[in-house]
Amino acid sequence: MEWANQLCENRQFGSKMTDSKYFTTTKKGEIFELKAELNSDKKEKKKEAVKKVIASMTVGKDVSALFPDVVNCMQTDNLELKKLVYLYLMNYAKSQPDMAIMAVNTFVKDCEDANPLIRALAVRTMGCIRVDKITEYLCEPLRKCLKDEDPYVRKTAAVCVAKLHDINAQLVEDQGFLDTLKDLISDSNPMVVANAVAALSEIAESHPNSNLLDLNPQSINKLLTALNECTEWGQIFILDCLANYTPRDDRESQSICERVTPRLSHANSAVVLSAVKVLMKFMEMLPKDLDYYGTLLKKLAPPLVTLLSAEPELQYVALRNINLIVQKRPEILKHEMKVFFVKYNDPIYVKLEKLDIMIRLASQANIAQVLAELKEYATEVDVDFVRKAVRAIGRCAIKVEQSAERCVSTLLDLIQTKVNYVVQEAIVVIKDIFRKYPNKYESVIATLCENLDSLDEPEARAAMIWIVGEYAERIDNADELLESFLEGFHDESTQVQLQLLTAIVKLFLKKPTETQELVQQVLSLATQDSDNPDLRDRGYIYWRLLSTDPVAAKEVVLAEKPLISEETDLIEPTLLEELICHIGTLASVYHKPPSAFVEGSRGVMHKRLPARTGSGESTESPDVGTAAGGSAPEAAPSIIPSQGDLLGDLLNLDMAPPTTTGPPPPNTGMQMGGMDLLGGGLDSLLGGDIGGSPAMGAGFGAAPAVMPASLNAPVGGGLGDLFDLGGGVGMPMGAYIPPKTVWLPAMKAKGLEISGTFARRAGVIQMELILTNKAMSVMTDFAIQFNRNSFGLAPAGPLQVLTPLGPNQTIEVSLPLSTVGPVMKMDPLNNLQVAVKNNIDVFYFSCQYPISMLFVEDGKMERQVFLATWKDIPNDNESQFQIKDCHLNSDAASSKLQGSNIFTIAKRTVEGQDMLYMSIKLSNGIWVLAELRVQAGNPNYTISLKCRAPEVSQCVFQCYEAVLKN
Amino acid sequence: MIGGLFIYNHKGEVLISRVYRDDIGRNAVDAFRVNVIHARQQVRSPVTNIARTSFFHVKRSNIWLAAVTKQNVNAAMVFEFLYKMCDVMASYFGKISEENIKNNFVLIYELLDEILDFGYPQNSETGALKTFITQQGIKGQFQTKEEQSQITSQVTGQIGWRREGIKYRRNELFLDVLESVNLLMSPQGQVLSAHVSGRVVMKSYLSGMPECKFGMNDKIVIDKAGKGGVTNEAGKSTSGKQSIAIDDCTFNQCVRLSKFDSERSISFIPPDGDYELMRYRTTKDIILPFRVIPLVREVGRTKLEVKVVIKSNFKPSLLAQKIEVRIPTPLNTSGVQVICMKGKAKYKASENAIVWKIKRMAGMKESQISAEIELLPTNDKKKWARPPISMNFEVPFAPSGLKVRYLKVFESKLNYSDHDVVKWVRYIGRSGIYETRC
């Protein structure tokens, strides 16, 4: 075989010369042989040798050692050989600057050659030889060539000026080449004009403030004339240059547009896109009521659609640009939805881009078609594409309200497929749908919960946790579900951890009785066992919030969330404007400003769209930015900032809003803002209460004197303090709130179900009610009234049910109560009779309130007074109770009780038994004194109560028991 | 602008490397190979940014062409240039293959030197290039002064696509209207999207510098003429179907665009030989030559029954050719039994499809295929995606309804008139992406 191959090769060599053989030589001593061949007398052999050298160069071998030998071949009248030698020179001149000088003479001579092709070749090549010593010699030949009689030489020389400028800008300016180049814009030959424009544009980019291009109506006119005559590439150079011009007024703008529009029919997509760029930019200046404005809008759509029948790579570029155009002027393509339907054989990058544009164009008119398509796509093979399609369905639901229901059912169908990534993606978007349409689609939660186990991606897990937390009151086993996530807390990603923390706090605020342990667990996991500062900070904030003021905590954590906006993924308007000025270029493909990916000074200048001005004001291209920066787009849609609102984020608005492709906001500034907010926020949030506030949990009470000072100190200190505090006592608690119970079952009240509880928040007694309409008709006109009762409780305001309560709807209201109503002793003492009225009937029920909500904040008695009072009250009024199975130590018990305004005045330890002396003041001024005996190791407490009105003792004792055991 | 241009074979070995800008180093060649050609994943974008350097690539068979830059270049232009480069190479040495590229590497370097200067594309019309860059080496040294200046004026001139002094004994024109009709239909027979993308391809063998004018049944032109009065009567009676609405069209650079924009007339000086005069797109009143009616039934977990009916929908006197219906089958297909009324059908396991071929079919006919597909039981949870049924065919008419009304040739300097030119017109309609979902 071996010899056969060789034979073949030899025969090939002999009969037909094929150049591919140059790629195969890998012998030793090759360089040496080549050297000999290069110096051969035979022309053919020389040429062959140079070819071999070039082939070696191509594949990356270093053949620079042959420099002198190759350059020796330069003096030849064989144009092919000459070109090869030039190719070699361009590659290696830089590494052999001294030897490269040898070539100068030839260049100078060639520039005088009678053959214009050779003159052009010389001037083209010498610009590529980046050796300082040589460039100086080249100035004279270049000057001559710029004025050559042959246009071919002139167009080559024009580009050479740009080359020279790249090597030595100063030299080009000193030699006056820039002026000569400017003159070439008026050349009679269109290609010379085009190349001169290209060269000047490039040079101008590195001199942002020079007035090099000096565009004025006269020169623009010349460019527009050349536009009709030059090659397709030349047209691109000219159009790209035109796009930098700012017309003086709308009339000039219109006349340029009129002369540019014919380019939209060019076969070359780049010509079309560059023309679109000019038109999109100049359109800004046209008054919208102008007929021509409408005509122009109509003219833009067909060529954009035609770009989609180009080759896939160009389709991709076109689609990225259309994405921008659709955001800037949605009206252009609003009727062209169908052309963006994905074809089965489209490359994946085309598919993904089309999908993006489909969502942008989705509207009520076409939503049915779009949904049908999306459903089809969701069954395709490519995972990324399928995910995006699922996401798109969710986006449609958010964008077009009428379609929301259909979208949700489509998503549920997809969840039924049980394809893992489809399910996860669907859950992520359903979360957004919940946020957009609250209280509408929660019936699907059950289906979602079924898929809990299959979720393995952080985003999907976080979304699911959010849903569970947000709708905890409707999910019976919400605590179990969340608890199951808690097991592997430390293995979860930050996103999931944060979400889990928030969700459990929400759950706690909604169902405080059953979930106390859970919330303690998550708070300690977040604050004590985690290294993540974000997580720790959020944990501490929740902790403090809960301990200081559960009412505020509820208001903050369960606050109404702002609706998410319809349009997502929008590019920020100023960036969009800049990108519109870069249509067709890489910036428009990346959706990033050139400064993001171009090094050095080039392209750093920010471009802006011109303002819609009348006339008179003339702004030239380089400073358009400052002159016309103010042109804000009409009615910019508001977007939820992706990471802007840190406070909002902390307080549970953190569900990442639908992902944005836009660039992230500058990071440093953001974080600084965050620090400030945190510091200030903490001060105002907690500072007020901390200064000896009686409501303050006893856990924090350990260092009450130090705290205000440290919190007013700079942020760092405050934070440090936070950490210190967390280490100590267990769970600081607010006032005890009994769980909600059903007071009025629906059966007894024609479909109205009322459940509720009482709470004391910041000194105000509140009745917290949940009204549920289980009837078929809407309920309105709610009102509430109390019967006379032991402590004169009465509503302090009307029942705030403002909206009609629809069937199956639920509303939570809290009703502030006063204690100044008519008094009548009830039995039991804490019984309350209530009447509720609505448009259907009046209903009566009775309930019992915990007396602890009547304990006022200033119930701490002076020690001396306590002693005196204790003695003063007759022993007959003393009653003793046992509290069984309470495992708190005396400090913890004291701190818990203090949350409910039962104040410990003194503590004594006698023979291992802690004696706590406490005082309570009721809202009607009755004092209750208590002695609590806690024996270490004994879970049974003994409590003695002394009061002038011994009737309350029983109730007070019940409170003790409830508070200590919950 | 373009900083460099590389050509690689399928293994990622460099065949051609030409650097135009100083900011592009040799490592760029390797960066593309490592990150794109040898990338483990499928290429997700034709534009790749590696370390602040952008790579644009296109692939022709197994050859990679990559343009590289560090600036904010006109991306559309770069791709257009890469396509043009492929065209130019193909017109010089045929298929773009590793072998051909290696055999012509000197020629390719010469071309790259000529058509890209400092990364700016220059005249790349093969007609002009071939006057001075040839596979036999460069013409130039033996040319006369006149010839030289003729070359340079053609390369830089207004009519860069045609040289002067062309002579034919017989002046002939061949005009082909080539249309590809695209369809996406729902299983229920609803047209989800349909469009025709058409091309007017010419071969002209005309002497001198002729001025040509091309006319077709463009609705805008006909309606305009209608308002004018007299002239349209004749026009309307001759063309059966009156006029068609063209959504958009693009033209070869020889066509005077400003004239089309103002008068909607297509006038040009044609290049010599083959060229594409225009492309157009229509979406209204398209004649869909075939209708595919699919019926797929899943019988249990291991069997599929497929029945597909095709109906031809054009004049009975016309014949469609090269009809091929491709019915995708699931990946776990173990066996297929096919019965078809006409033509031949075969299950191709390697392509996961049943391919049904019919040589010829007249208009207004219908034919049917039924197949039983046996499936291997799998525990793959994922459902089969049911790709659409696709179809190929060729019909001797233009599905858009486009008709050529005239093609006039004027050459004032030479003494031949429009009547002396022999003109041939042909209509071919082919399937583009012609799919019916099932």
From TrEMBL, chain A:
InterPro entries: AP_beta (IPR026739), AP_complex_bsu_1_2_4 (IPR016342), ARM-like (IPR011989), ARM-type_fold (IPR016024), Armadillo (IPR000225), B-adaptin_app_sub_C (IPR015151), Clathrin/coatomer_adapt-like_N (IPR002553), Clathrin_a/b/g-adaptin_app_Ig (IPR008152). PANTHER family: ADAPTOR COMPLEX SUBUNIT BETA FAMILY MEMBER. Residues 855-965 form the Beta-adaptin appendage C-terminal subdomain domain. Coiled coil: none annotated. It comes from Hucho hucho. GO terms for cellular component: clathrin adaptor complex; cytoplasmic vesicle; endomembrane system. This is AP complex subunit beta. Keywords: Acetylation, Membrane, Protein transport, Transport. Gene3D superfamilies: 2.60.40.1150, Leucine-rich Repeat Variant, TATA-Binding Protein.
TrEMBL record, chain B:
InterPro entries: Adaptor_comp_med_subunit (IPR050431), AP2_Mu_C_sf (IPR036168), AP2_Mu_N (IPR043532), AP_mu_sigma_su (IPR022775), Clathrin_mu (IPR001392), Clathrin_mu_CS (IPR018240), Longin-like_dom_sf (IPR011012), MHD (IPR028565). GO terms for cellular component: clathrin adaptor complex; clathrin-coated pit; plasma membrane. Signal peptide: none annotated. A 1,2-diacyl-sn-glycero-3-phospho-(1D-myo-inositol-3,4,5-trisphosphate) binds at K344, K346, K348, K357, K359. Its main location: membrane. It is a peripheral membrane protein. It is found in: Cell membrane; Membrane, Coated pit. Residues 170-437 form the MHD domain. GO terms for biological process: endocytosis; intracellular protein transport. One of its GO terms (molecular function) is lipid binding. This is Adaptor related protein complex 2 subunit mu 1.
